Amino acid sequence: MSHQSFHPPLRTLMGPGPSDVNPRVLEAMSRPTIGHLDPMFVALMDDMKVLLRYAFQTDYDLAMPVSAPGSAGMETCFVNLVEPGDTVLVCQNGVFGGRMKENVERCGATAVMVEDEWGKPVDPNKVEEALKANPDIRLVAFVHAETSTGAISDAKTLAEIAHRHDCLIIADCVTSLGGSPLKVSEWGLDAVYSGTQKCLSCTPGLSPVTFSPAAIERIQNRKSKVQSWFMDLNLVLGYWGGGAKRAYHHTAPINALYGLHESLVILEEEGIENACQRHQHNHSALRAGIEAMGLSFVVDEACRLPQLNSVTIPDGVDEAAVRSRLLNEYNLEIGAGLGPLAGKIWRIGLMGFASNQTNVLLCLGALDAVLTDMKAPIKSGVAVEAAMKVFAS
Prior knowledge:
Blueprint: E1 12-13, H1 23-29, H2 39-56, E2 62-66, H3 70-81, E3 87-92, H4 95-106, E4 110-115, H5 124-133, E5 137-143, E6 145-146, E7 151-152, H6 155-164, E8 168-172, H7 184-187, E9 191-193, E10 207-211, H8 213-220, H9 233-240, H10 254-270, H11 272-293, E11 308-312, H12 319-330, E12 332-333, E13 335-336, E14 345-349, H13 357-373, H14 383-392
Parallel strand pairs: 1-12, 3-4, 3-5, 5-8, 8-9
Antiparallel strand pairs: 2-10, 6-7, 9-10, 11-14, 13-14
Pfam families: Aminotran_5
InterPro entries: Aminotrans_V_dom (IPR000192), Aminotrans_V_PyrdxlP_BS (IPR020578), PyrdxlP-dep_Trfase (IPR015424), PyrdxlP-dep_Trfase_major (IPR015421), PyrdxlP-dep_Trfase_small (IPR015422), SP_NH2Trfase/AEP_transaminase (IPR024169)
Family: Belongs to the class-V pyridoxal-phosphate-dependent aminotransferase family.
């Protein structure tokens, strides 16, 4: 039996991630591999740290990519900052807050939960009340941009409350980095993790992280060893720290890092404010088309992520069949709902390189055609025109 090379179809990725990868990033990843301790690669690492500080809008010294996906970035933050016996406040308003709770418990700590309805932001008043009721809490963890629902929480306010109670912050910024305003230093976020496959338009597999001096101090003064050897920042910093002399820790994913570097260069070229405005403008056009069809959004406009749109499914429609037809007939991927929202919403991503006029119009036109063919109760033939009015304005 002979095996053949795998040649994937050319899809348009408008789900919750991965998003379309910029061709410049794919080209960068195809460049010659060099050693992970090569002086040329060390210079690239140093440049990447500068670019990551720009992307995170931070002046923290430590900004680096973890050599694994966003979930490993999350785990890096928790295993380094949480010790057995600690009490951690975890805010849950979707899937990823639940993953934070799991991390806390696996570190041998106790999670105090603040829960909000899926599709709503984290309620700062509940956080304040929980911190008053539990004075032993040392750490507050929340999701800035909840990918399972498309809701964004007020990171600045949550951080202010946490710091008033002498707590450090862990923030999940996987979907917000490069797509929504994120000011890590100004807002006082202590440990932040993200992913490369959302608004940075890079391939999955790396997790940018950044840590405040206060977080580093806590890590360096732990009573117990970090439970993960691979993610122990006391060791990793021997490789990602400053200076030309690097201690071998692991073989970095060299070509993947070429890709991330290129995506950060592209973000710098566009300008982070411009990138955020582009995501917002394309969301406005998509929204006009979706609402013209007679569909609606789950998340209130005031706390809605422009890059992750949770759209209600019309009555009587087989939502999985719609997604299947979009994939097979239009090479277009959109996402399904998770948890309590499974079967109730589609998640339409407008992230990074995929956030453009062509994709908005393709998505609306394809959705209109498929739903009309399925005799769904929508207003047909008006979505694209409604979006075009926004683009023309």
